Structures are given as structure tokens and as C-alpha cells.
Amino acid sequence: MTLNHAFKALSDPTRRQILDLLKNRDMTAGEIADQFQMTKPSISHHLNLLKQADLVWDERQGQHIYYSLNTTVFQDVLKWVLQFSSGKE
């Protein structure tokens, strides 16, 4: 994971909405797709970009794949952003 991948993933409003959904609980791709008016392949594309940025993890449970937040990456992004607030004023 690089910060570039994380920022690219975070730049899209749909991906940010997916992350908002996952704040509350782990969800399957189908449950996530039900929240949007777009095709399941489009949601899958967004989920793949979030996975590539390590912002979400996936775990197979039976026939379903559950997605969850990887909060470690958010901490890394926040740490990078906060370094600017401790600089010269």
C-alpha cells in the first residue's frame, strides 16, 4: 500500500460511500451493491480498488465474501495529514 493508492481510492465519492457503509458493519458485496443504483460489476470494481489500496479487507465465509475496513491504513493517512498541522504557523 502506498499513500498514492489510498488517496486515489478516496478521491471517488462512491468509494467513500462504501467506506461509510463499512464503518457500521462488515458487509457482502451484494449488501453493498443494494445501496447503490449501479451494476454489481461496477461495485466490484470499486471494491477491488479499495482492496488494492488496503482500505478494505475481504474474507470468505461460506459462499459469501465479507468486506471490512482496514483502519490501519486510515491511521497512516491521518498521520501523514497531521504532520502538516504541527509545522510552522
From TrEMBL:
Record has Glycoprotein as a keyword: no
CDD domains listed in its UniProt record: HTH_ARSR
Keyword Transcription tagged: yes
Molecular functions per Gene Ontology: DNA binding; DNA-binding transcription factor activity
Coiled coil regions, renumbered to chain: none
Database matches in InterPro entries: ArsR-like_HTH, HTH_ArsR_DNA-bd_dom, HTH_MetalResp_TranReg, SdpR-like_repress, WH-like_DNA-bd_sf, WH_DNA-bd_sf
Any matching Pfam family: HTH_5
Annotated ranges, domain HTH arsR-type: 1-89
Gene3D superfamilies listed in its UniProt record: Winged helix-like DNA-binding domain superfamily/Winged helix DNA-binding domain
Protein name: Transcriptional regulator
